[in-house]
Amino acid sequence: MTPLKVVPRVLRVASVLLAYRLDELVDAAHLFRPLKLLRPFLARPREDVSKLPRGARLRLALTELGPIFVKAGQVLSTRRDLVPADIADELALLQDQVPPFPGSEARAIVERALKAPVTQLFARFDETPLASASIAQVHAAVLPDGREMVVKVLRPGIDARIARDIRLLHSLGELAQRWHPNADKIRPLDVVAEVEKMLENELDLQREGASASLLRRNFASGVDLYVPEVHWELTNERVLTLERVSGVSCDDIPAIDAAGIDRKALAIKGVRVFYEQVFRDNFFHADAHPGNIWVDITRPSDPRFIALDFGIMGSLPEADQYWLAQNFIALFERDYARIAQLHIDAGWMPGTVRVDELEAAVRTVCEPYFTRPLSQISLAELVVKLFQTARRFELVLQPQLILLQKTLLNIEGVGRMLDPQIDIWAVAHPVLKRILLERYSPRRTLREVRKRLPEWFHAAPQFPELIRDALRQVARGEQRQLGDPLALAQMREDARRQQRVIGTGLLGSALIVSATLLWSMAPQHGAWPPLCLGAAGVLAFVAGWPRQRD
Q1: Among 42, 128, 171, 176, which is least packed by CB within 10 angstroms?
Q2: Tell me: the pLDDT tens digits for 164-215?
Q3: Are 378 and 417 in contact (CB under 8 A)?
């Protein structure tokens, strides 16, 4: 039941939807249908609005409803596996257009947050904002040592306003979940949860600073991507102070051309930087629209990108990262059977799915694309269609994969804006293969083993006690089952299996650890002794691996 205190605001939302002739949305929510009787009393939309497509009308309605609805539309634009393409394209154009709050208030917030007068913290603090959005606004400043900075300040009272609007979104989501005919596909409550999580992250500017710091460290050379430095002494949850940078938006083609920059080389670099963020570092900028990606035009011979606004960052669990990389490789090589099998092996689909049927569905989507020149194939569009197709086979997409899908769309859009003829496949394939070879190489595996050795040595003394406890549990289980001879025999067999697994596991671990120590600490003995010990350890694991029961 919708709380009475949000009813007036729900009615306002419904009236705005009606005013923009979004009748299908009002019809879908039965509670809103009586409001259509109010249409004669509503302000008639301009003639040009009435003729706009539904996506544009929805975008304008969300803009009128306010900043939180703009955020909801931005999140919804990433759900191309659920939302029609025409609506997603329009919602992707949503931008926060919010009047700035007074600079004197920003100064007061900075002084309260940093517990010092602005005149003591900065040589100059410009009260006229450089930019203003729904969550925060940015002011120019100069440190006492002369370094130029930008100071991001949260809006006053933003926490309470967001909490109030989130409650309203939850109420609307519940209505849509109950009455919308496609609620099972759109999953409105999940969309609201994504909006809430995104806003929660954006309200913590110290978290944003930490994200900027990590991304800067990942691209420390600054050759391909430059990330402004965080000034931690003047940063906390409500204030973020960053090095001020200069550049032009990556969609400002005339300015880039005027600087004499090779746009083809710049586009290739942008695609490479994206794949390095995702698969090398597992930490990527997930809001990479042109407003947040600038170009440094002071380096025409070796151009680079400048990243801004680190409120939305993404990462993948290591397992998903591996499976996704393998899926991309299989897609580049048109190995449809492998794509189908990888989706099942990754656990994205239930094991009951028939691989041949999934392979046929993937082939049906991909083959029409591969009849075109590779330079004309949109990898992002193809991935979206694959996700839409896979949903018929009970694909469950995790939020981090949806965020990656949105970022892939943004990056490919930037690349094609800079170079309409860029061959995304030719650029991405070798980069991804190189990263995978480095990431899963024997040398990296040995480094990981050496890193975990102290943990293994710390846990090793606990193994005897764990074995004893396991055997006691088996014994207690046998006593409970004494009345059943078959169950007792089965318990004895399970105990023998468990003893064999534990014993051979301990032996295999000891041999592999010994091989690693011999390799790292006594290289003068050559490679054969540690290789033989390692092979013996693997054989011990194989010997103890549980066999399939008859």
Answers
A1: 128
A2: 878 877 877 777 777 666 666 566 777 777 778 877 888 899 999 999 999 9
A3: no
Place of tokens 């204030």: 239
479 — phi, psi (to 5°)?
-65, -35
Secondary structure element (H or E) that encloses residue 241, with its range:
strand 239-243
The H-or-E segment that residue 399 falls in is helix 399-418
DSSP 8-state code for residue 200: H
**Quick one: DSSP state of residue 101?**
P
Between CA 543 and CA 501 the distance in angstroms is: 8
Q: According to the model, what pLDDT value does residue 232 have?
A: 96
- Report d(CA 501, CA 163) in Å as an integer: 53
| Exposed/middle/buried for residue 430 (C-beta within 10 Å: 0-12, 13-18, 19+) | exposed
Positions marked active-site:
287
Tokens 């009393």 locate to: 41
Structure tokens at 240: 């973020």
Burial of 190 (0-12, 13-18, 19+ CB in 10 A): middle
* Matching residue, tokens 């919602």: 91
Taking the CA atoms of 33, 38, 40 and 45 in sequence, report the sign of the dihedral they define.
Answer: negative
User: What would the DSSP string read from start to end of 153-166?
Assistant: EEPTTHHHHHHHHH
Q: Which two tokens stand for residue 75?
A: 């999140």
As a whole number of angstroms, the distance between CA 166 and CA 172 comes to 10
For 530, the token pair is: 């540690």
Average pLDDT, integer, range 288-304: 87
Q: Evaluate whether 477 touches 491 at the Cβ level (below 8 Å).
A: yes
pTM for this entry: 0.72
> Nearest-CA neighbor of 226 among 307, 165, 122?
307
Hey, what are 153's tokens?
């300040």
* Torsion angle in degrees (nearest 10) through CA of 425, 427, 429, 435: -150
Composition of the chain by helix, strand, coil, percent to 5: 65, 5, 30
Q: Which tokens is 167 given?
A: 């409650």
State which H helix or E strand residue 404 sits in: helix 399-418
Give the pLDDT band (50/70/90) at residue 502.
Answer: low
Cβ-proximal residues to 358 (8 Å cutoff; 6+ apart), any chain: 340, 343, 344, 349, 390, 393
The tokens for 223 are 């050759």
Average pLDDT on 466-487 reads 59
Q: How many other β-carbons are positioned within 10 Å of the β-carbon of residue 367?
A: 11
* 90-132 confidence digits (pLDDT tens): 887 776 667 889 999 999 999 999 999 999 999 999 999 998 8
> Lowest-pLDDT range, 134-143, 154-163, 334-343, 433-442?
433-442
Buried b (16+ CB within 10 A) or exposed e, 282-312: bbbbbbbbbebbbbbbeeeeebbbbbbbbbb
pLDDT score recorded for residue 41: 56
Angle among Cα 425, 428, 429 to the nearest 5 degrees reads 80
283 CB-near residues (< 8 Å, 6+ apart): 211, 214, 215, 218, 277, 313, 314, 315
Give burial (CB, 10 Å; 0-12/13-18/19+) of 457: exposed
At position 4, the amino acid (one-letter code) is L
